[in-house]
Amino acid sequence: MKIVGLTGGIGSGKTTIGKWFLEEGIPVYNSDSEAKKLINEDLQIVKSLTGLFGEETYQNGIYNSKYVASKVFNDKELLENLNQIVHPAVFRHFDNWVKNQTTSFVVKEAAILFESGSYKDCDAIISVVADEEIRIQRVAGRDGSNPEQVRKRMDNQWKDEQRISLSDYVIYNNSDLNDLKKEFDQVYKKLLKQFQSS
Ligand code: ATP
Q1: Are 84 and 112 found together in one domain?
Q2: pLDDT digits (tens, 9 = 90+) for 26-75
Q3: What distance in Å separates the CA atoms of residue 124 and residue 187, rounded to the nearest whole number?
Q4: Do 53 and 86 share a domain, yes or no?
Q5: 5 alpha carbon – ligand 1 mean position (Å)
Q6: Residue 155's pLDDT is what?
């Protein structure tokens, strides 16, 4: 089973492209939403995070992401500890998910594909790239996020230039959705050529 990593900064258009892969019948694993599910449902994670951050980590059984974010905000070591609990669990969950797929390749969508190191397990990597200001506008339009908060989250992620240097395919998303779809179609055709014959 070949793995195509799909990454890009916040609001770059990963999920939009992920939906087009799904429409083509290609399974997509959304690492961010699966991680959120595991953090709430995996008893081992719940136990480890409660041990690390205290009882306030879960309120009425629901993960208190604001509380944890405030704890790790200025504490790199604590952030590293958090990642060491969550990332391996997501990797294992993904490995099990892959075993149940039957297509020639699957897509692993992850905002932090590079930062988490999981890009090393990918057979091809797509980065979706768009100007920061455009991304901020789009995220604000999508969920009402405050531009300052979006900028802060961007500061913790890799820059586009770093992602591009390690990517096999780069999809530019500064224009409209029609242009994005055309770029997607081209990359999709190349992936079919690359993986359907192997
Ligand atoms: P996140 O990292 O926050 O999960 P993402 O990379 O998955 O973001 P999307 O959710 O696909 O990004 O896109 C962000 C928002 O911008 C969505 O509301 C999407 O519909 C919109 N969008 C994406 N590309 C375009 C475009 N070319 N033109 C207009 N709107 C777009």
Answers
A1: no
A2: 999 999 999 999 999 999 999 999 999 999 999 999 999 999 999 998 88
A3: 11
A4: yes
A5: 17
A6: 85
